[in-house]
Design goal:
This protein has 331 residues and is of the alpha/beta class. It is built from ten helices and 13 strands. The longest helix is centred in the last third of the chain and has 23 residues. Bound molecules: oxa(dethia)-CoA (UT7).
């Protein structure tokens, strides 16, 4: 049975940088509060004319170049986003069209912060079932256009940001080589409203209502509740994936946690007993790009030489749904 190898990665963020001081001019917040509570110093936000599809095209082209394959070798796209360019269709087909990838399937998944972990699990299942051998997995978001950039929305506006990461994954036929060694995926809809965007939604008649604009269409978050669950679920899930993979925390070369809040990452690190050099964080520069955080961080690690073939990588995410999950990857 083939295993799954991540062959090449890429990232793209908008050129526009928004610092904490920039936000403090618009809302009642401060660089000090944001840095201390979240670890974020700046983030990238789109300007008019930029899109999730556009960012993911750049990230995908970089991933394809790094993989050293031709674009027409891609057999399927798995596109994770909670902030698609349009209500329907999803961004997968727009990416396919913009990249001229031919009539390949494009699957959009909506598992928010856990999008890349879930997307990779689907790619792995296709590969191991022998259905496809080369896939493009994308995690990308444009969150800034859905933020309530006012005092009312200050607990989310300072956190969420825009960016895309992509990975070319390919069937690997050496059983002792690259592989996704263990998975752990979960969901708990009891907490769906703790981190959500209520409208537009088909539950409303009609779906689009002017009055929703100001009270239901922004991302809403119960930060404390999300924080509490994230710091429990991510270590629990990494442990479950490590048990499946037959790997211990000491053996991990690197953990890339979803970049939601530096304090969350530090608590996950502590609970798993990992050293500083075993954990990668870049939230200070990018904020929380939801499905984008893990593939963006992964691309930085690969390009900086933090991962070499044979190393053991863990990824873990928690977010809206609640949905969470982890994977252990032999790079
Ligand atoms: O992507 C996955 C999902 N997201 C997460 O994992 C995020 C999880 N949650 C968090 O990261 C944190 O809960 C936050 C960073 C959102 C908030 O940090 P906190 O330490 O939980 O703060 P808090 O919500 O308890 O608020 C403390 C104070 C409040 O003021 P009072 O009531 O003490 O007077 C807030 O109104 O901080 C205030 N506050 C702010 N002050 C300045 C909330 N947001 C801001 C802000 N600037 N941006």
């Amino acid at each position: 049975m083939p295993t799954t190898q991540i062959l090449g990665t890429g990232l793209a963020v908008p050129d526009r940088i928004v610092t904490n001081d920039d936000l403090a001019k618009l809302i009642d917040t401060s660089d000090e509060w944001i840095t201390q509570r979240t670890g974020i110093r700046q983030r990238h936000w789109v300007v008019e004319g930029e899109s999730g599809t556009g960012l993911s095209k750049i990230a995908s082209e970089r991933a394809i170049a790094a993989a050293g394959i031709a674009p027409d070798e891609i057999e399927a796209i798995i596109y994770a986003t909670s902030s698609p360019d349009h209500f329907a269709p999803g961004n997968g087909v727009f990416l396919q069209r913009e990249m001229g990838l031919g009539h390949i399937p494009a699957i959009d998944i909506r598992t928010q912060c856990s999008g890349f972990v879930y997307g990779l699990s689907i790619a792995d299942a296709y590969i191991r079932a022998g259905i496809y051998r080369t896939l493009l997995v994308v995690g990308a978001e444009v969150q800034s256009t859905g933020m309530d950039v006012s005092d009312r929305g200050r607990n989310t506006a300072v956190i969420f940001a825009d960016g895309a990461g992509a990975a070319v994954v390919r069937a690997h036929d050496d059983p002792s080589g690259s592989a996704i060694l263990g998975w752990d995926l979960h969901g708990d809809g009891a907490f769906a409203e703790k981190l959500w965007v209520d409208a537009p939604g088909s539950i409303y008649h009609p779906r689009n209502q002017a009055e929703h604009f100001d009270n239901k269409s922004f991302l809403e978050m119960d930060g404390k509740e999300v924080f509490r669950h994230a710091t429990t679920r991510m270590p629990e899930s990494v442990r479950a994936a490590m048990a499946q993979a037959g790997v211990t925390a000491e053996q991990l070369t690197l953990l890339i946690p979803h970049q939601a809040n530096l304090r969350i990452s530090e608590m996950v690190q502590k609970q798993l007993g990992l050293r500083d050099d075993q954990v990668y964080n870049n939230i200070d520069r990018y904020g929380n790009t939801t499905a984008g955080t893990i593939p963006i961080a992964l691309d930085e690690c690969v390009r900086a030489g933090r991962l070499k073939r044979g190393d053991l990588l863990a990824i873990t995410a928690f977010g809206s749904g609640f949905l969470w999950g982890s994977a252990i990857i032999r790079w």
